[in-house]
Amino acid sequence: MIGAIAGDIIGSIYERNPIKTEDFPLFHSASRFTDDSVMSLAVAQAILGDRDYGKEMKILGQVYPNAGYGGNFQKWIFESEIMPYNSWGNGSAMRVSPVGFAFDNTEDVLREARASAEVSHDHPEGIKGAQAVALAILLAREGSSKDEIRSNITASFFYDLDRTIEEIRPGYQFDVSCMGSVPEAIIAFLDSTDYESAVRKAISLGGDSDTQACIAGGIAEAYYKTIPSTIISDVKRILPENLLEILARFEKDHPCCDTGELLRINHSTSL
User: Fold this and answer.
1) What are the residue boundaries of the structural domains of the chain, listed by start?
2) CA geometry: angle at 95 spanning 54 and 263, to 5°?
3) Best CA proximity match to 224, nearest among 165, 151, 140, 152
4) At what angle do helices 2-11 and 241-253 cross, to 10 degrees?
5) Residue 74: burial class (beta carbons within 10 Å; 0-12, 13-18, 19+)
6) Radius of gyration of the chain measured on its C-alpha atoms
7) What are phi and psi of 89, to 5 degrees?
8) Which one, 24, 87, 100, 114, has the greatest CB density within 10 A?
9) What's the predicted TM-score (pTM) here?
10) pLDDT tens-digit profile of 125-134?
11) Whole-number Cα distances in Å, 216 to 56, 58, 241
12) pLDDT one-digit tens code per residue, 26-77
């Protein structure tokens, strides 16, 4: 899931400063982790401890209350009960990557993706977005081709994936809905040639850049099974120790690409 976290961090400075090019610095002095990373790591924490998704989201969200949550979710974090609010926003899809990496068959992935979504995003489109991303990661992990991933996700969720980033980019605008951002993030992966190009293409849409790069980055990690070591090093530099420890433990239990540098550096404190 480090690919999702890296995508979030890389996309963070372009969320409010949209760009329509793939030519940009990956990291900047203002690059930061956002709610995408915090909630993804909360889902990972729940999986690692076999605990409730909603409770873990509230716990970690309260530790990082200023990570950039939407207004309704910000309120949800501090409510005493876990009450969903019929959201179709892409928050359900941005945090689901650990499910795709941790579970090994379609039935389990779809069930857990739904469970991770519906604690807050119980609208059918919110659940659908989470399931589509988690299933794409599972299929990529299993070695499915891009054509197979495209056809499976299209048949299962009725997303239009027969477009290209070049076709989408000119008229695309900021969109936080699952239906208006998840298919485009998946297409960024489908059009990519490696991990980095998937993230660049997602950000170049000029939309919800951190979330779309988080989604595309998670799928790309599962498919290409490699992330440049320089990107891993920058993730380590930016994440605070407690979040890095969750990431390191999850990567150890559910390895996909070579995160040896990250794990070795944190071995004494995390593992």
Assistant:
1) 2-16+28-270
2) 105
3) 140
4) 140
5) middle
6) 16
7) -70, 165
8) 100
9) 0.95
10) 999 999 999 9
11) 24, 25, 25
12) 999 999 999 999 999 999 999 999 999 999 999 999 999 999 999 999 999 9
> What would the CATH number be for the domain defined by 2-16+28-270?
1.10.4080.10
pLDDT at 266 over 50: no
Cross-strand bridge partners of residue 89? 177
Place of tokens 């690409």: 257
Q: CB pairs under 8 A, 24+ apart, for 103-110?
A: 103/138, 104/138, 105/138, 106/135, 106/138, 109/134, 109/135, 109/138, 110/134, 110/135
Asked if 55 and 230 touch (Cβ cutoff 8 Å), the reply is no
**Each residue's pLDDT tens digit, 169-182:** 999 999 999 999 99
Structure tokens of 204? Answer: 């170049």
